[in-house]
Structures are given as C-alpha cells and as structure tokens.
Design a protein that fits this description.
There is one protein chain. By secondary structure, the protein is α+β, with helices and mostly antiparallel strands. The protein folds into four domains: about 150 residues, Roll (ibrinogen binding protein from staphylococcus aureus fold), CATH 2.30.310.10; about 80 residues, no CATH class; about 130 residues, no CATH class; about 110 residues, no CATH class. The protein is built from 13 helices and 23 strands. The strands form six sheets. It has a six-stranded antiparallel sheet. Helix 7 packs antiparallel against helix 9 and helix 8 packs antiparallel against helix 9. The longest helix has about 45 residues.
Length: about 525
Amino acid sequence: MHQNYYFLKQLAPALHQRIAGKIFIEAFSQEKDEIILVFADAPAAEELSNPFLIKATLKSNFACLSFPDKFERARKNSVNLFTGLSGNEVEFLSVFENERAIQIRFQDGQKLVFKLFGNRSNLIAFDPDGNATLLFNNKLAADKSVTIDSLNRPIDQSFEAYVRNDMRHEVLFPTFGKLVNAHLSGLLQGKQSAAERWQIILELLEKLESPPYYLTKIELVPVLSLIQAGEMIAAYNDPVEALNAFYMSYVRLDGLEKEKSDLLRKLRKRIQQTNNYLTNTFDKLTELENAVKNEELGNIIMANMHAIPERTEKAELYDFYRDKPIVIKLKKDLSAQKNAEIFYRKAKNEKIEIARLNESIEARMAELEELQQHLAGVENIDSLRELRAYVKKSGLNQSKAPVSQDELFKKEEFLGYTILIGRNAKNNDLLTKHYAGKDDLWLHAKDVTGSHVIIKNQPGRNFPELVIERAAELAAFYSKRKNDSLCPVIFTPKKFVRKPKGLPDGAVVVDKEDVIMVVAKGS
C-alpha cells in the first residue's frame, strides 16, 4: 500500500513541508529504472545548504519513493536528466484527486509528476500548460499523451451516490486497493442497511486518512499498510519515515524470503483459480442435471405426435415424467418426428457433456489436493537450498500443463457439432490462429467488434444449415450487434482468414465470405 492514494494523500503535504521554497538542483540516474532528485536551499555550491533527496525506484516489479540522507554520485555511468528544471524554485507539492500521482509545481509553472501506477510507474515533466514534455521511462509511450487535467478523477462519493450504485463501494472508492477492500468486506459482512454500511465506510476512511502507518509482513514480504494486517513490525506517524523504513525492509529481503514468498503467492493464486473453476463447473453440472433432459423432451414429443400441429413453433404437451403440462419449443419447418430427433441428438451431447464435467471435476479435485500439499510443504521450508531442491523435485518450476479448449473458450455442442467462442481480443487470436483448422468454419458479426466463432469440421460432412445458423446466432450475441433486431454474420472456411503482422489483437483479414442474417441468441 506504499502506492495507495490515501497514503500518498498524506505523503504529499509532508514532502511539501520539506521541499517547498527549495531549489531544484539536479536529477541524475546511474542505475537503470532509478533516478535521484536533489533539492537545496541555495543553488549548487561547494556544499549544498540543507539538501533533500528523493530517490524514485521505478522498476516494473517494484516502484517506490525513498528519501536518503545522502547519496554519493558516481563519476562514471551517471547521466543528468530533466535539466530544464535546474535552478527552479519549488512552489508546492500535492496529490491528484483520487489518483496515485504526486506533483511538484515550480514557480515558472512547470511540473514534475510521480505517476505511481504499479508496473506503469513513471516520472513525467509538464510545461506550464499542463502538457507532458519529458518522460523518465520512454518505453511507457502512452504517458506522452497524459495531461495534468486528466490526472484528476472527480468522483461523487456521497451517500446518495452509494445508494444509486447498489451499495457497491468499489465504484465510489476505486482507490481503496485489494488489502483495504478485503478488510472492508469483513467489516460489512452481514450488514444489510445502507446507512449502517455507509457509516462503516466513513469510519474506515477516517482511519485511512490519518496515521499511524504500519510496516508489516504479508506472505513474508514487507508491506506498508494503513490498516493492521499480517505480521506487525513497526508503526510510524511520519509518512516519510514510514516509507523509508518500508523501502529498506523490501530491498533487504534475502534470497529465501523472495523466492519463498513468490512461490507461495503463485501457489495460492493457483488454488484460488482451481476453486473458482470447481465452483463454476459444479454449478454448470447441477444446472444440467436438474434441467429437463433432452431425451425426455424427445420422448414427450413422440408420445404426443398426434397433438402437435404442423409448422408450429411451440406446443403444450402432457409431460408424463412429471404429470403436468410442458411447453416445448420446436422448429416450425420440421415435422414432429424430426424435432424429436434433434432432441435425441442433443441428449447424446448432453450425456457427453455431463461425463466431461465429472471427469474435469475429478481431475481438478486431485490437482487442488496436490497444490494444497505443496503449499503446506513450502511453508515449512526454512533454507534456500531445501526450497530449490523441493521446487525441482516437485516440478513446480515447470510451465503449467496446456489448458484445454473447454477452459479457454466458451463452448456449445449442437446437433453433434462443436462450436467454440472466443472470450476477448487475445483469446480470439488464440482461437483463430492456433485452435482452428483450415477446414473449420469461421464466423463473426459483420462490421462490428465481437467474438470469433468456430464450428469444428467433421471430415466428409458438409456443415448443416441449422448448425451454421446456431453458430451465427452466438456470433451475433457475443458482439456489438447483440441488441439489433437482425444481425448480419459473415462465415467462411478458416483458410480464408488471415492475420497480417501489425494488426491489433482480434483483428483479421477475410479474403472470401458469405453472409447470413440471424437474431442474436446466447447459450
């Protein structure tokens, strides 16, 4: 939480007291992803008067400010940066509204902004008009378009707004962060009244906006927290002192602590992912098992064929399984017997799907048990050599097993054909480039963003019109045309779909296509 907005909100005025009125002497870097800023009461001289240093460590895996008492600049491999600000007097420091960024404003209107956005942290210089002029990390090219005004995020944080957003505090306070949100969820447990929940949020806000600041350890890693959590090390009332203590604790982590905490974090994440998968799969299995079976619907149609008019889209029939009427949707262009055959084919796929889900649950339960054993094993290791030996022996350093199609993509079985649906732009690329064969049928809603859809080819068989229509309905449903009355969907063998270099995720070129008009329908 050393980058938490509520901590930075208190750090900024503390820095203002130390820096306002001082002169910006220089900024230099002699380590990659690290810059030192020097401020003093007077311009450069033999010995700086009352200097104050800010060290910004802006690595992709760790970004933090610290404030060393002194710093010996190397004679070699050291480069001056932000030289246009040298000799400028600091006017004030402040934090941006609801944003993890601190600005240093100089008397001539120029500004330096510490943008502390996790792995996208940077130091940016702005001209008096608020436009970015210089970046410390030029790889973060998007920062060139950042403006001073865009860094403020006004949010209605009133009780009325809380109620309007269905008591979802995350909408009003996106700056809380994971640790605070987890703590708050516990405080709100069982509280139904909006007024009572709001009072708890206000009391927490009061704590977040004032000392003390806790240096603690969570999963062996030092954390600077605004709430008491983990293994407490120390508490501070000065944010500058607290941040220095956190920085020194973090950089002094030994090899065992670093590797062990990283491994524990990965194991807990995989356990959580596996639990989530099991929950979703159990829900899907329960839904399938509790629903009226397709085989039963086929039998009901066959037993009531005399009561089904021709070209009807639905029929109310006697359900002899449950001794009550049931309404069954039908394909109006097909006879009652043909409709029954469709349900029988679906029943076969239904049984296959239930068997697959049971197998998947069994495999994931075994995986979960293995992960929990590894977690317990790693927690009890207290030497780096033993940890590395355990990792090598157990294979925890190897890549995860390939993920199945069922886990990567949405899937539907229809009339004996498998239909796969991409979940997002990157996932679309994966589906089209690596999981679709050249003779599979590729579909996409025409002229709008949406999911790539694939019908898996069955050698020696043409794609039935009903299958193409169903896949097109899914392509329309998972697109921007979801709410249109009719949606044009293009379809073509995958061999006519190309991905030239330079195109963004999900974008392709289609060399040959047909179009079908459908109504969007989800699974």
